[in-house]
Specification:
The protein is globular. It has two domains: about 140 residues, Aspartate Aminotransferase, domain 1 (Alpha-Beta Complex), CATH 3.90.1150.10; about 260 residues, Aspartate Aminotransferase, domain 2 (3-Layer(aba) Sandwich), CATH 3.40.640. It has about 400 residues and is of the alpha/beta class. Strand 8, helix 7 and strand 9 form a beta-alpha-beta unit. The chain starts with 15 loop residues before the first strand and ends with a helix. The strands form five sheets. A seven-stranded mixed beta sheet has the order 4-10-9-8-7-5-6, with helices on both faces. A four-stranded antiparallel beta sheet has the order 13-14-17-16, with helices on one face. It has a two-stranded antiparallel ribbon with strand order 1-2. The structure holds pyridoxal-5'-phosphate. The site of pyridoxal-5'-phosphate (PLP) has 15 residues, from helix 3. Its cofactor is pyridoxal 5'-phosphate.
Length: about 400
């Protein structure tokens, strides 16, 4: 992919940064938006703005239909059984926090919660806090020495009976794709009541995701990492669980009846969606899913895989330390690394002066960086509008930084 026909759909990619063409390689933080998503949001405010599920007037009915249309599109995109399994939230972090609060009544002193060192803080801290609050045991599966997922150790732990298992689908640091399906099978064979929560923030919109086939219980992701607006996320909740959990947020839109002495809840998904949602953002997510579908998720997955392999090959020749597994086939869209004797922030600064946007720091994955005994790393992440030329620019930029720092 030297040329990319999709690039022209993204107005921001025509920007110059520091007198250079923008090379945007910070997609794991957030993706850019195609014009159709920007238009969908502005069109909503221009022509359809009203609150949803409340008014018996034309605009409110239009807004409601637009929101529900996105729910149907998202459900089909992740292979949900019914659209009602899709709960709109403010982002993956919100989704994971809601999941942790929903399952709280099922967690007791000495229940076992398992997560991993590979997690983003959003899928780590809520479980750490839940364990602290309930007296549950938190088991954190260590990564292997290179920073890759330890299947052997995970299997051993899952075979000891686990109550809650929170796992990422794709690492936001190493890009490693975790075989969640096989792990769910092991966890549920040992304890059919084990609740599995998957953080799909780096997976949805990057690879085909089928929540039924994964057989997890909750699946969380953010719209803004798949071309949609910020401030919108999804928590997919398996249908069988709707009646087993009480809502954790209360207010308008989620009740059936309210009296002075008690309240009862509406049906799912509304019982889990208190208050006015980010309607325009949700409409934008619908447009993003439409755009992804127009290309095809298999094609997108193939292109991101190709770029990732190309980046690993080119960066591998620079004498830098790449984090994660040797097996490049297990990686999707994200490559983190350190250039010896150049701090990641300094590297990011030099690259920025060349118009190249990468991320530096711990990427909200401090446990992983601590395990690897590094304070920070540089991260390049790719999406469907990137090209091999972008990666060549990154390589040139790193060479230039090495020259500047004389390393
Ligand atoms: C793997 C992973 N999980 C969760 C999140 C949190 O997403 P958000 O900040 O959109 O809530 C991120 C964001 O970087 C992520 O990469």
């Amino acid at each position: 992919m030297t040329e990319n026909t999709k690039t022209s759909d993204f107005p921001i990619l025509a920007c110059n940064i520091n007198n250079h063409r923008l090379v945007y390689l910070d997609n794991a933080a957030t993706t850019q938006k195609p014009k159709c998503v920007i238009d969908a949001v502005s069109n909503f405010y221009l022509k359809h703005n009203a609150n949803v599920h409340r008014g018996i007037h034309t605009l409110s009915e239009e807004a409601t239909e637009m929101l529900e249309e996105t729910r149907r599109k998202v459900a089909s995109f992740i292979d949900a059984v019914v659209p009602e399994e899709v709960i709109f939230t403010s982002g993956a972090t919100d989704s994971l926090n809601i999941a942790a609060r929903l399952v709280e009544p099922k967690v007791q002193k000495n229940s076992v919660i398992v997560t991993t060192e590979l997690e983003h803080h959003s899928n780590f801290v809520p479980w750490q806090e839940l364990a602290k609050k309930t007296g549950a045991v938190l088991k954190v599966i260590p990564v292997l020495s290179v920073g890759s997922f330890d299947y052997q150790k995970t299997k051993e732990i899952l075979l000891q009976k686990v109550d809650i298992f929170a796992i990422t689908h794709v690492s936001n640091v190493t890009g490693e794709v975790i075989d969640v399906k096989s792990l769910v099978k092991i966890a549920k064979a040992k304890n059919p009541d084990c609740l599995v929560i998957v953080d799909g923030a780096q997976a949805v919109g990057h690879m085909p995701v089928n929540v039924q086939s994964l057989d997890c219980d909750f699946y969380a992701f953010s719209a803004h990492k798949m071309l949609g607006p910020t401030g919108v996320g999804v928590l997919w909740i398996k249908r069988d669980l709707w009646d087993k959990f009480n809502p954790v947020k209360f207010g308008g839109g989620m009740i059936s009846e309210v009296s002075l002495s008690k309240s009862t809840w509406d049906v799912a998904p509304y019982k889990f969606e208190a208050g006015t949602p980010n309607i325009a953002g949700i409409v934008g997510l619908g447009a993003a899913v439409g755009y992804l579908n127009s290309i095809g998720i298999e094609k997108i997955y193939g292109e991101i895989r190709e770029l990732t392999e190309y980046a690993l090959e080119k960066l591998g020749k620079l004498g830098i330390k790449i984090l994660g597994a040797e097996d490049t086939k297990k990686r999707l869209g994200v490559v983190s690394f350190n250039v010896p004797s150049i701090h990641a922030h300094d590297l990011a600064s030099v690259l920025d002066s060349l118009g190249i946007a990468i991320r530096s720091g711990h990427h909200c994955a401090m446990p992983l960086h601590t395990a690897l005994k590094i304070p920070a790393s540089a991260r390049a992440s790719f999406y469907l509008y990137n090209t091999k030329k972008d990666i060549d620019e990154l390589v040139k930029g790193i060479i230039k930084a090495k020259e500047m720092f004389r390393v």
